[in-house]
Specification:
One of its GO terms (molecular function) is ATP-dependent protein folding chaperone. InterPro entries: ATPase_NBD, Hsp_70_fam. Pfam families: HSP70. Keywords: ATP-binding, Nucleotide-binding. The chain has 68 residues and is of the alpha+beta class. The protein contains two helices and two strands. The chain has a two-stranded antiparallel ribbon with strand order 1-2. Strand 1 and strand 2 form a beta hairpin. The N and C termini lie far apart (37 Å).
Length: 68
């Protein structure tokens, strides 16, 4: 829930506060993250998604299906 909220804030702002209560053994977590760091953290996942989409596009083309 906290991560989703932070992601939404970062879509409109360059920086966001992230806080999670009772993360582990009654310990709270709080931090600030900026959009650049968030995008860097997401890049490996975006690369994997892009590879899957490119593979699907190639398979569709091989089957005679166009993406236009």
């Amino acid at each position: 829930e906290a991560v989703t909220k932070t992601k939404k804030i970062l879509s409109a702002n360059m920086e966001a506060q992230l806080s999670v209560e009772c993360l582990m053994e009654d310990e709270d977590f709080g931090s600030t993250i900026n959009r650049e760091v968030f995008l860097e953290m997401c890049q490996p996942m975006m690369d994997r998604v892009t590879a899957v989409l490119e593979s699907a596009k190639a398979a569709a083309a091989a089957a005679g299906i166009t993406t236009e």
